[in-house]
C-alpha cells in the first residue's frame, strides 16, 4: 500500500514551530521522566523544533526521522540528530525508548479510506514490542453528525476534481484553503483515533485534551463541531 506524498512546496508550509510548546507541555505531562533510559524518536519530526525543545527542557536525547531531506538538513543545522527515513519502514537502532508521532499520522494517506486506515495503523505497529511508550499528538475533528466532518475533508482533499473545485472556492472564501489539496488529509474524531490505536495493538494510558481552536464560519458547512489537538500516551496491550 502506497502513501500519497505531498509535494515539496506543500511540505514547506510545515517549516514552523507553532505547535511545539503545546507538544512539549503534553509530553512532559504524559510521559514519565527517564531521559537516561534511551532516545526519543520523533517520526515526521520535520525541522527538529520539537526534538530541540525536548532536549532543552528535559535533557532527553532525541532523533528525528523524516522523509523530507530539507527538513533533515534543518535538523542538522540546529544540532538535532536527523535521519531521512519513512514512518512506514523506519530504521530501528535499538536505543529507542519513546517514539513520537506529532501531527504526522493524518498525512499517512492512501488511495482509499481503508488503505489510509491501514497505513496509519501500520506506522504505529512498526514500534509494537520495540518501545514501551508511544506519544501521539493529533488533530481532533468532532462533528455535529457522527464522524462526518473529517471524512468529508478527506474525500474533498484526496479527489483531484473536488480539490480543484474547492481551491477555486477558496479564492473567494479563503478559509476553505487546504495545503493538502489533491493529495488528501485524514483527520479523525477522538473516538476514531482511539479505535486506530486499539487496532494497532495499543492501549491509551493517558490523554491531554487540547483547547478548542477557532472555526471559521464557512467551515461550519462541513458540520465541524470542534477542532483541537490532543495528545495520547500509548502502551502495548
Ligand atoms: C505536518 S508536518 C508535522 C511536523 C512536526 N512533527 C510538527 O508537529 O509540527 C508532517 C511531517 O511528516 C513528514 N512525513 C510525512 N509522511 C512521512 C513518512 N511516511 N515518513 C516520514 N516522514 C513523513 C513530512 O515530511 C513532515 O515533515
From TrEMBL:
Keywords: Methyltransferase, Transferase. It is an enzyme of class 2 (transferase). SUPFAM superfamilies: S-adenosyl-L-methionine-dependent methyltransferases (SSF53335). Transmembrane segments: none annotated. GO terms for molecular function: methyltransferase activity. GO terms for biological process: methylation. Its EC number is 2.1.1.-. InterPro entries: SAM-dependent_MTases_sf. It comes from the Bacteria. Gene3D superfamilies: Vaccinia Virus protein VP39. This is Class I SAM-dependent methyltransferase. It comes from Altererythrobacter arenosus.
Amino acid at each position: 500500500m502506497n502513501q500519497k506524498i505531498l509535494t515539496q512546496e506543500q511540505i514547506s508550509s510545515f517549516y514552523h514551530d507553532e505547535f511545539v510548546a503545546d507538544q512539549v507541555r503534553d509530553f512532559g505531562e504524559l510521559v514519565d521522566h527517564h531521559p537516561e533510559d534511551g532516545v526519543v524518536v520523533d517520526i515526521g519530526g520535520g525541522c527538529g523544533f520539537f526534538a530541540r525543545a525536548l532536549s532543552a527542557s528535559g535533557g532527553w536525547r532525541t532523533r528525528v526521522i523524516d522523509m523530507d531531506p530539507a527538513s533533515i538538513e534543518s535538523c542538522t543545522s540546529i544540532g538535532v540528530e536527523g535521519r531521512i527515513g519513512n514512518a512506514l519502514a523506519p530504521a530501528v537502532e535499538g536505543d529507542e525508548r519513546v517514539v513520537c508521532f506529532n501531527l504526522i499520522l493524518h498525512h499517512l494517506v492512501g488511495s482509499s479510506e481503508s488503505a489510509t486506515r491501514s497505513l496509519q495503523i501500520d506506522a504505529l505497529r512498526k514500534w509494537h514490542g520495540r518501545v514501551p511508550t508511544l506519544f501521539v499528538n493529533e488533530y481532533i475533528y468532532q462533528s455535529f453528525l457522527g464522524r462526518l466532518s473529517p471524512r468529508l475533508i478527506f474525500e474533498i482533499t484526496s479527489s483531484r476534481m473536488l480539490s480543484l473545485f474547492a481551491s477555486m472556492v477558496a479564492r473567494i472564501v479563503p478559509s476553505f484553503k487546504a495545503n493538502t489539496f489533491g493529495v488528501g488529509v485524514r483527520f479523525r474524531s477522538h473516538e476514531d483515533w482511539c479505535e486506530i490505536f486499539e487496532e494497532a495493538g495499543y492501549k491509551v494510558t493517558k490523554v491531554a485534551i487540547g483547547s478548542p481552536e477557532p472555526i471559521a464560519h464557512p467551515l461550519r458547512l462541513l458540520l465541524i463541531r470542534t477542532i483541537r489537538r490532543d495528545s495520547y500516551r500509548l502502551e502495548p496491550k
